[in-house]
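Aggregate trends can hide what the representation actually does to any particular protein. The sequence in question and its structure tokens are set out directly beneath this paragraph.
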Amino acid sequence: MIKVSIIGSGNVATHFYNAFVESNTAKVIQVYSRSDKNLAHFKDKTNTCNRLEDLEEVDVLIIAIKDDAINRIIEKLKNRKEVIAHTSGSVPISHLASKNGVFYPLQTFSKDTAVDFETIPLCLEASDKESFTVLEKLASAISDKVFPISSEQRKSLHLSAVFVCNFTNHLYQIGEELCKQNEVPFEILHALITETSRKATENSPKDVQTGPAIRNDEQTLASHLNQLTNEKYSEIYKLLTQSIQTTYGKKL
């Protein structure tokens, strides 16, 4: 049994806690947060603390907090003996602790939305072989998709994830807004969203691009721009159209 404590109480920390609890290999010993209020969700489930010095000795400390606080926390933990791993997609592996690593789940998390951790890729990195082995065993206890990924590779993955997840979701939001403005149910677009995602995961996205930009349908492009009264959305439309046409060698 791998003894784990979690530093953090937000979305990622909560989902990791749930995944570890359901595992037969990992046992959550404590959850840490500076705020008692943030620990309320865990109070009746496991031991909690709001002082780092009160953390018990475990096998792995998972740091699931905002990126700009990670190095500060690791600095305070540098004399501990267990493996210390953060969950950030963009922060390089830290060398402030003697045994440290990265335990990065490539997924979007909302606290109240359940996820199937078995399908979530876990990207691992460690300062030494022994630490990596421990992290790999822990990761394999909750996920079927475990990958050794360097800091440079992880930076690229995180950037790619922003494009395919965060930016794409913002485009969904714009689409929903346009639907509401014209009293059209956004639900009508759900099947299109699902099919687009399916094609992009079963093929190279470059091979399945459709729409007026790749067809160089100037009349439709002009009509769409004429409909957009929000200048910001017009700029997004123009930029994406230009990017698609440049990618496929179309004349603007």
Observations:
- The radius of gyration is 22 Å.
- Helices lie at 11-22, 70-76, 129-142, 151-181, 190-202, 212-215, 218-227, 231-247.
